[in-house]
Design brief:
This protein has helices spanning about 20-25, 50-55, 75-90, 105-115, 145-155, 175-185, 210-215, 230-235, 240-255, 295-305, 320, 325-335, and strands at about 1-5, 10, 35, 95, 120-125, 140-145, 275, 285-290. By secondary structure, it is an alpha/beta fold. The strands form two sheets. The chain has a six-stranded mixed β-sheet, sandwiched between helices. The N and C termini lie far apart (about 60 Å). The model is unreliable at about 165-200 and about 345-349 (pLDDT under 50).
Amino acid sequence: MTVVYGDVTIVVDERDDLFYTRAALQAHRPAEGRITVQPTPASGSPAALAHDMLYTLGKRLAPGPRSPDVWLDSVNAAWLAAAAWGVAAGVRHVVVPRSHLLTIRRIDQLLAWRQVTGAQLTLLWQKASRGLPPVLARVERRISGREEFEALLAEPGPIPARPSFPPAASAMTGPAGLAVAAGRSSPAVRPPRGTGAASVRPGRRAHPCTGALATAQLVQAAPAIEIASVEAAALAALAHPLIAGALSVLAFTRAGLGSLRFTRDLDITGDVSAIKLHGVGHRHCPLHAVPAWARPLLAGARAHHRLTPHPPEDGMFAPVMSAEARHLRAHAGRLPRLGLSLPVGALVP
């Protein structure tokens, strides 16, 4: 029997039928916006389920008692990171097997995560339905049978409550789109005459107060520095969105660490194809093209910023720039092939 509570579906599998577990595992298709999260059994960590969510989304916590990811042991920080990655990846449906083993607190955490992301949540309750907690007591409709469960898993899921930022090609048109595209293609490509952008060199300073989209109408984005695919994969596996986004920017721009201090939400184009950095006093504010591998990481960083009560003009990476940016520097030290040496003095560009 399957009972549905709004956007939360409880699949009651009292006999623990292998069919339902197998179908849930086979339904894991992140590229289609559907993931299956398997809770770690008997874990006493308050943030364990959030860590399981991060793991399912392809993120890996740095091990060790002095890990630079120790701040993700906090429940709020871990679930915020999981929400940001879920929003950025466009997750629309989350399936959780063996949810009857979860505590009431972790069920509440899942429900809160669903409310933030707008995703559909399906819980496999593999014991008698009389054990359902009160928080799941409101039934709107009932579905029964294997075919109905398979049909539920085949549905595309609801549209997320917040926008996703997939690593798509530039959707901009006109001078802005041409300017950003030029940063990813041949240096000979220039915006058409009459736009005021043709005479501007790649990465040249523009008006200090404008965001990335407005700047792209005036200047040509500097092409991204290439890095090895194995290093890009290592950056993509970082668990915290702000750290992954910040280090990716340093990797493909070779900018100073201090340049991240003034980066705002509006300094990233809507399709995450270009980013604008700011120097002290706005004496040098270059526009950089964002490579395809880094777009999901910057999308996660921006989603993280938007899920917190900060206005768009606030520095997006400010939370990881405090305390001498020790978390950033620690992660940079774990990626020696990237050559990101971030001493304390690097905070001043």
